[in-house]
């Protein structure tokens, strides 16, 4: 619920540029995925990003 409120606060009637808003949305969904990768494979976020790239 807190994530939903935070996401709404970022996106609703906010003059933030579109690219920044898209980045916030992407991080909102990627965060739990990175946490799972850290638990399952002991990969930190920076290692996961290098592998992803």
Name some characteristics of this structure.
53 residues, mainly alpha
Short recap of the structure:
The protein has 53 residues and is mostly helical.
Walk me through the structure.
The protein is mainly α. 79% of the residues lie in helices and 0% in strands. It contains 3 helices and no strands. The chain is elongated and about 40 Å long.
What low-confidence regions span 5 or more consecutive residues with pLDDT below 50?
A: none
Helical stretch tally = 3
Give the overall shape. elongated
**How can the largest sheet be summarized?**
none
State which percent range the strand residues make up: under 5%
Give the end-to-end Cα distance, rounded to a whole number of Å: 31 Å
Mean residue pLDDT? 82
The total strand number stands at 0
Q: How much is the radius of gyration in Å? A: 14 Å
* Structural class estimated from helices and strands: mainly alpha
User: What order do the helices and strands follow?
Assistant: HHH
Task: Report helical residue fraction.
Answer: over 70%
Task: List strands and helices in order, with pairings.
Blueprint: H1 2-11, H2 18-41, H3 45-52
Helix pairs in contact: 1-2
């Amino acid at each position: 619920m807190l994530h939903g409120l935070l996401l709404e606060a970022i996106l609703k009637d906010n003059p933030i540029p579109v690219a920044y808003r898209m980045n916030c949305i992407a991080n909102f969904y990627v965060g739990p995925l990175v946490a799972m990768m850290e638990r399952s494979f002991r990969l930190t976020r920076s290692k996961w990003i290098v592998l992803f790239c």
